[in-house]
Amino acid sequence: MDKVSTDCPYPGCFFCVMKEGNPSKRRASVLKFFRELPSQDDDGQVLPISGLWNTAMAHPNDPEFIELGIFECMAALIWKGLKNRRWLSHDQNIYIPYYAAHIIGSYTMNMEEFAERAVHAGVIPPLVELLRGRLTWVEQRVAVRALGHLATYPSTFSAIANHGEVLELSIELAMSSLEIVYSHFYQYVDRRLSYHCDLLTRGMGGVEMESRKAEEWASQLQCWSLQLINCFAFKTEFLSVISKPEFLIKLPGMWGGLVNENSPAGIGLLRTICHNKMGRGPIASCPSIIESLCNIARSSDDWQYMAIDCLLWLIQDTSTCHKVVDKAVPALLDLSEVSTLGDHKNLGNTIINVLQECIQSQAASRNSISPRTKEQIEELLNSKQRLKWEKGMPKEDLHIKQAAALVVKLEGNSLFSSGNITGAASKYSEALSLCPLRSKKERVVLFSNRAQCHLLLQQPLAAITDATRALSLHNPVNRHAKSLWRRAQAYDMIGLAKESLLDAILFINECSQSNDPDLSLRQNKVPDYAERLVKKQMRSAWLFREAAIKHGGIQCEGDGGGIYGRESDDSEWETASESDIGNDGRDAMGDDDDDSEWNNEEEGKDSYDRASIKGVRTAQRNSRAKKVASYSLTLPDGANLNV
After folding, report:
1. How many CB atoms lie within 10 A of CB 402?
2. Between 96-108 and 112-120, two packed helices, what is the crossing angle to 10 degrees?
3. For residues 243 and 223, what is the distance between their CA atoms, to the nearest angstrom?
4. Chain CA centroid to CA 523, Å
5. Helices 23-36 and 70-83 sit at what angle, rounded to 10 degrees?
6. What value does the mean pLDDT of the chain take?
7. Is the peptide bond before 436 cis (omega within 30 degrees of 0)?
8. Which tens digit of pLDDT belongs to each residue from 114-135?
9. pLDDT band at 22, cuts 50/70/90?
10. Closest to 607 (Cα-Cα) out of 625, 585, 622
């Protein structure tokens, strides 16, 4: 090298090279360093590689090292680690393949020009070998990340696709990644490789932090595998490989979890597949997928709109409509009054138009829809006509309708208070038929009240429908706290832990921001019953749950496959109406928005007698999902529980 610090004991030290003041000399020295590093066996090589890793993370768009041969150097180092196990086990060289693959991924994530340089430098073959699992799951994670970035660009996708095994390896990894990380790292604390622990915690150490980061990295390994598969899914010629039933049916259950909430994961891939006519056929032939799409569409999942898109495309396709329409229409009807969802403007109108086209086209189709589904769509279209008719009504007549609906609603409240839940539900239905359609705040309350009745009558599917309709009408969408809580309970009753968890967390967030005087008086705005439900569902929706069951981390007992174990809190969760009855006989989570046009909303609604409460609670306990095992759980970042 041209200039070496007199204080540094290592000739040609990379860090000393970077201090060279003359730009041309520094570039020449860096070029020489990259060329010579793979052939050297000196100790301490991991230090400059980790420095390059930091630089790549901080400045991924800087072209200097790209031009000087960093990709060639990193590819050679990965090959060296794969072929020379003696070198790999010496000193701290075990870290080098990981850092090298990570550096490749960082420099190719934003710039297509850099990706092209990487391909020409020959990075794909060594990355594919890491993807195969030639080393460990830690290297697989950064390899699939780098390959996913390279597959994103049109100019480099073909180079990835030419390695035919990449797609099949990615599919296999997406399905097995959680089990791999659980069985190879998470399950046995005393068997964890030290360099894995160091990479996960950046040398901070600690079993709890290692486990927490392992869950995050496992989720990333699966999500990045799905991202790579998604690049192939845009190409029709690869759909036959991707659209195998054994893989498709697992996609709805692949989600980023609370630790990787920015990834659309399985639902994102399903949307890409559904966008292609060839992909819609295999999806429509899997009833469980359609059911899962309906559940995601009626949830507070950030990717809710993707599930809605899938359902709409499947209904619009005449070759798949007859297979999905009876399952999809009820979910879409519940969402037909959504105004805006993410970037989707006037989504409700889009849903109505698609269903109207479905009715019109079914007459010419050999495969007609069921009478019940047709009736439901016609009811929706009639309500659209009713809205137009109401717009032409005098204001006085609208006020009369509002007043009549209020009277009936108060009758429902009285019946509810006396324990006549069925009668109350009937009155809320009558009030909905009277209430003007544009009185959205009042209809939110009525749907939410009726959802509570359905819950107490052990009718979770009807409760989900009404709670979803309330949440769709509310502005902003999916932010009506009481409807979130009721739907969370309903999803819990039918064993859908993820959907219940997401609603419960959003409910808690709404509570923490609420101006409700009953809540603002509390030191802790998070209701205990909600906290308990969240903890329960976090156990049930735990990322490693299936792997833990398979490998004995959770013991299953009984023919029903129930999961048992210690629980940190095994007290019964309560409905919102039950939780605070001991105070003043009222639901402390009352059913009305403070700014509602109806001033005496829900007065006394939840003050029914204790005998009625006892009967309802007994029924709930009998139908409650079996207890889940307790792990050493920590709430991940992003859960925002404020508890």
Report:
1. 17
2. 140
3. 17
4. 31
5. 20
6. 84
7. no
8. 999 999 999 999 999 999 999 9
9. confident
10. 585
